[in-house]
């Protein structure tokens, strides 16, 4: 289970976030009226996907005792009309063979956050 809390106050678009016991800040870019004090919401979404991808691949490689020295995940969110897309590019560091690299790319398609985004998730909203 994961928990987060977001609060926007007097500073236009600045959001103070608490995720677990970590404090973060989100904001809109200056061209959208914010002060760019932190990542914008879609940047946070991409960061979550990148973190999950990196962690999952590192865990998998460790369990297999594969020489994965590092994972770099570059992400881009684009929208064209009603069509939305995330492009993910993996750079795998270490002395991996082609089969290991292919397997890690396959695993990336099934990380928990990847599966959540691909499947969609129900969101309920209540007023307090």
TrEMBL record:
InterPro entries: KH_dom-like_a/b, OsmC/Ohr_fam, OsmC/Ohrsf. Gene3D superfamilies: 3.30.300.20. Pfam families: OsmC. PANTHER family: OSMC-LIKE PROTEIN, PROTEIN INVOLVED IN RIMO-MEDIATED BETA-METHYLTHIOLATION OF RIBOSOMAL PROTEIN S12 YCAO. This is OsmC family protein.
